[in-house]
Structure formats: structure tokens, C-alpha cells
Amino acid sequence: WKLTDGEINLKMQTPPNTSATVFVPTTDPANFTKMNPTLPKDVKIFKVGKKAVILSVQGGKYAFVASFEK
After folding, report:
1. Looking at residue 45, what DSSP letter applies?
2. How much is the pTM?
């Protein structure tokens, strides 16, 4: 992950034939879908919390961006 200019950029990879739960920290969870308008079909938003968006992902490479202020 990388934190720059009020955004967190998260790149990740999960092995084939597996799944993972991904916690994307954010200070603006409601803005997550606007910043990631084309989520792959194998990425599901599991829960939107006060300080994170929780995703369920299948095996593959992914990149997400979210608002994040220190």
C-alpha cells in the first residue's frame, strides 16, 4: 500500500482458487464506490464500517483506492 495526497492506494494479490477478506482503511467509506467505480465481478463489498470498507475477493490481482487523512 501507499499513502499519498489524502489517498491510500492498495495493491494486492491472492493465489488462484482461494478467497480473502480485505480491510481497506478509509476516512470516507461512502466515497469508496465513487473512487472505485468498476470493481471486478469477483469483488464484493461485505461491509462498510466507520473507518474501513471490508471486501470479499477471489484469487487474482487487485488495486483499490480510498480517501485517507492522517
Report:
1. E
2. 0.88
